[in-house]
């Protein structure tokens, strides 16, 4: 197999400047609705990129759990690699790859922790097994075997068998406040449509078309 021969044409849609909402969050919500309506697998999945103190980038897929005028929210173990790196450098990049729609959105911004009350509200809305998993997993830390992980899960499940599972002190969420948001629509002959929203000094948004 020659991977350099793998390619396809992008012909589903075009994106013109007069089609864009002047508010990038509103534009994102329109595209997210399209992804959900198209029944894409995991339409809220996004790649979160952070950088270590040594300058080493790292990426992982997480699920977007809220979006609004202030930005994009996700939740995680505060001892995880991404949380540790965000504590050192809050600059972050989010990437939504909606391949079958020939679209992608890239968000550049800074992350800050959300209030505990908001974390609690979301945590209590999760399935109980997911709540238990949050307690059982020391995210990003080494574990000897999967059996050891499952044993810890069983112990936690027994411990909280009755009643609600409390919010772990080491579990929280981040709000990514965007400074730039790029919308990419695949185009024929690799002449893709790209538009970059950038926040101005007066907290408005400018829009520029980018070369593909």
From TrEMBL:
The keyword Flavoprotein applies. Binds 1 FMN per subunit. It is an enzyme of class 1 (oxidoreductase). This is Pyridoxine/pyridoxamine 5'-phosphate oxidase. GO terms for molecular function: pyridoxamine phosphate oxidase activity. Catalyzes the oxidation of either pyridoxine 5'-phosphate (PNP) or pyridoxamine 5'-phosphate (PMP) into pyridoxal 5'-phosphate (PLP). Pathway: Cofactor metabolism; pyridoxal 5'-phosphate salvage; pyridoxal 5'-phosphate from pyridoxine 5'-phosphate: step 1/1; Cofactor metabolism; pyridoxal 5'-phosphate salvage; pyridoxal 5'-phosphate from pyridoxamine 5'-phosphate: step 1/1. The keyword Flavoprotein applies. InterPro entries: Pyridox_Oxase, Pyridox_Oxase_CS, Pyridox_Oxase_N, Pyridoxamine_oxidase_dimer_C, Split_barrel_FMN-bd. It comes from the Bacteria. FMN binds at residues 60-65, 75-76, 81-82, 104, 139-140, 184, 194. It catalyses: pyridoxine 5'-phosphate + O2 = pyridoxal 5'-phosphate + H2O2; pyridoxamine 5'-phosphate + O2 + H2O = pyridoxal 5'-phosphate + H2O2 + NH4(+). Residues 32-158 form the Pyridoxamine 5'-phosphate oxidase N-terminal domain. Belongs to the pyridoxamine 5'-phosphate oxidase family. Keywords: Flavoprotein, FMN, Oxidoreductase, Pyridoxine biosynthesis. Residues 171-212 form the Pyridoxine 5'-phosphate oxidase dimerisation C-terminal domain. Its EC number is 1.4.3.5. Its cofactor is FMN. The gene is pdxH. SUPFAM superfamilies: FMN-binding split barrel. Substrate binds at residues 65, 122, 126, 130, 190-192. Pfam families: PNP_phzG_C, PNPOx_N.
